[in-house]
Amino acid sequence: MATDLAEVMRKIVGEKGVFTDARSVAVFSRDAFYYSPVLKAQLEDKLADLIVAPQSVAELQKVVSHAAREGIPVTVRGAGTGNYGQCVPLHGGIVVSTHRLNRILDFDGASGVIRVEAGVRMGQIERFARERGWELRCYPSTWATAAIGGFVGGGFGGVGSIRNGVLWDGFLKSIAVLEMTEEAKTHTLEGHDVFGFIHAYGTSGIMVGLEVSLVPAVPWEEAVICFPDYADALRFSHQLALDESEAKRLISLNEWPIPSFFRPLVDAGGIIEGQAAVLLELAEDRTTAVAERAAPYGGKLTYTAPASAYHKGKFCLSDFSWNHTTLWAMKTDPGWTYLQSRFSPEPEKALEQISALRAFHGDKVAFHHEYIRQSGELVLAALDLIYYQDKEPIYAAIARREELGIQVADPHTFLLDADPRWSGEVVLAARARYNPHNLLNPGKISSQPLTEKARLW
Ligand SMILES: Cc1cc2nc3c(=O)[nH]c(=O)nc-3n(C[C@H](O)[C@H](O)[C@H](O)COP(=O)(O)OP(=O)(O)OC[C@H]3O[C@@H](n4cnc5c(N)ncnc54)[C@H](O)[C@@H]3O)c2cc1C
Fold this sequence. Notes:
The protein has 457 residues and is α+β, with helices and mostly antiparallel strands.
């Protein structure tokens, strides 16, 4: 069946757009789920029947039309950096890779709106925008490789979220969506309707064009401030986060020993043995003043990079932020994994939560927080490292956080509806309309069983 399908697909997208060899199929059927030992055990053997990489929306329409007619599941993939198996095909079928849909289509220099195809990398957009005096509102620490369709479909926020919020906070002006039906029609959606596609794991339709709202570029410089005590690092970071007059793009807090995992930063002399490190992106010429504010908290400036070197050096500080932090930890010791949660935005309450968790975990936890704003509210997001590889202690750690009033977005499940960040009914309504046969990434929403049509495939 897969051989026949490959022949049909080759007629649509050409020889170079179809991958059937075992290695390519394995690579394109995976994402970064291996950060979770739980997902690793569940997803490692899940494979597509073949990979298809269309070069145009017209080709993709033909692929979708054929798949819809035959009841073949389709899972869309950007760069495959998602952490929850978002683009792993649970029921085989076609993985559509968007890497050849990589054109910047339009840019309005007056409003700062850029229109792109879904496979354009975040880094490509950021560079294009900065050259023209604009920048992305927010981007994931995987910005160099992640595709815009993948960020919107599977991401949340990241660098810039302390200033401009997350994906739900005006990131998109509109999207062009391809419905998963034999007709394979496209629809342009804006306003509230785009929420049906944000963090929806590609279950509600295929985004083929995205209009992204940019913000005026700021010349950013980078700084690391080290603190003997994580509690003081948090108190300082909190008041910096609250201060609207001090522009910043990143406030990333890392408890010792996490800074020791950041090898390039260690080699650059940017960390102090035994101390917490706060990684900052600040407006040009503001580092000295911010470092002075940190001094009463015991903070010491250990690393700076000027605005002229932004995104141009051997590394960026964002390479150690968000889930890159976990990556550096796993490189040092594969026994680490992580949790995602929200601590209290009140620093003293957050410190109580931290000390309760310290009592619970002992040395099997290392705290990592990121300050962001969501819907205007300050949020203390956490990607704590925990030193467990078994499901039981991981879920005991989640339960303990919930007892302490910490909301957890479990990164050890591939189920979209287990994630408190998804948009629920809006996604289900979009899914019912644009993916009526549940052929897109089936199995990712627990309440949406496979249809008879897909089951026959
Ligand atoms: C080291 C590391 C750091 C990370 N840091 C961050 C971070 O800072 N912030 C953050 O939010 N995430 C982060 N992530 C998670 C992930 O990198 C981001 O979500 C990223 O933006 C995903 O992009 P991608 O192109 O790799 O998407 P993929 O993994 O390819 O896809 C993600 C989801 O989007 C769907 N999708 C892809 N394209 C489309 C489309 N055209 N239409 C509809 N659905 C589509 C897929 O089906 C899948 O469900 C991190 C992951 C890693 C491994």
